[in-house]
Design a protein that fits this description.
Length: 331
């Protein structure tokens, strides 16, 4: 499987076999790291990390993974570059491609990372856009496989706002890899019909399925995975909190949801999560709306069924696999 020179912008661009190759490679690299085996096949190379949206897991994952592979990194925060301000995306791509061997972008519209890739002569990796979050998907699928022993046939339920990067990307990943995906939310928060139709076709080919449901009890019955995300994403205005809380509160992941799922069900979340009052935003929401927890209860988040920190660690291993494969270190 030769992915040398490929961009990694959305899993729509990758075949099931290519996705499985990256998951397998991540598992191999994780095992080597756990056993203390040091390999630096990309020593001497350098990557640029553009973060128009800040992040803990994505930044740390790219930096540690690059270091493990022998590469240097340059981190460009929202104030650290002229991208889209004094310099166009096309010019930025060509400048960075002349100095670096790969470019990561985490920010806003998918069109930005697509333009970077269009004008760059080196691989471009999507660390998150409004529409897609492909590196998170590899971490999620690796975690599911580690915890449940398989991917095909797994009943996977996503609860919350399914219109954007997480809902879109989980539906794509599950449909391509043969999982049974359900978006459980209010109908106005369902994914776009066009993407649903495409995923239904992929699911038909893989043996999976795609379901949209507003009924929590039916959707989560005997589920293997219960997944959720914050109700308001980074960069969205504060005014939407009231609307989201009202619409999505029925889809909070709580003990009743987990009891309705299968006995061995796992809980997943891409983080950060608002499950207590120990964050500034959590405290503000409590003060304004009287909520102690939002998309997931603290009871579920801290339970034995929660695998969120294994999932977070797997971001690094899967991002390492993406960089290593697209830069030609492993085939």
């Amino acid at each position: 499987m030769d992915l040398t020179g490929r961009d990694f912008l959305t899993l729509k661009d990758y075949t099931p076999a290519e996705i499985e190759f990256l998951i397998d490679l991540a598992a191999e690299l994780k095992d080597k790291k756990k056993r203390g085996i040091v390999e630096q096949p990309l020593i001497g190379k350098n990557v640029a990390l553009i973060f128009e949206k800040t992040s803990t897991r994505t930044r740390c994952s790219f930096e540690v993974a690059a270091h493990d592979l022998g590469m240097g990194t340059t981190y460009l925060d929202p104030k650290g570059s002229q991208i889209g301000k004094k310099e166009s995306i096309a010019d930025t791509a060509r400048v960075l491609a002349g100095m670096y061997d790969g470019i990561e972008y985490r920010g806003f519209g998918q069109e930005i990372v697509e333009d970077l890739a269009k004008y760059s002569k080196v691989p471009v990796w999507n660390g998150l856009t409004n529409e897609y979050h492909p590196t998170q998907m590899l971490a999620d699928m690796l975690t599911v496989r580690e915890k449940l022993g398989k991917l095909k046939g797994v009943k996977f339920v996503y609860m919350g706002d399914a219109r954007y990067n997480m809902g879109n990307s989980l539906m794509i990943a599950c449909s391509k890899l043969g999982l049974h995906f359900t978006a459980c939310t209010s109908k106005e928060y369902f994914p776009a019909a066009e993407l649903v139709a495409q995923c239904e076709q992929w699911a038909k080919e893989s043996g999976g399925s795609v379901t949209l449901s507003e009924d929590v009890n039916t959707a989560t019955k005997d589920a293997d995975v219960i997944y959720t995300d914050v109700w308001v994403s980074m960069g969205e205005p504060d005014e939407v909190w009231e609307e989201r809380i009202k619409a999505l509160s029925p889809y909070q992941v709580n003990s009743a949801v987990m009891k309705n799922a299968s006995e061995n069900a796992i809980f997943m979340h891409c983080l950060p999560a608002f499950h207590d009052l120990k964050t500034t935003i959590g405290a503000q929401i409590h003060e304004k709306f009287g909520l102690d927890e939002m998309e997931v209860t603290d009871e579920v988040f801290e339970s034995e069924q929660s695998v969120v920190f294994d999932e977070a660690e797997n971001r690094m291993h899967t991002i390492k696999a993406v960089m290593a494969a697209t830069l030609g270190a492993y085939k």
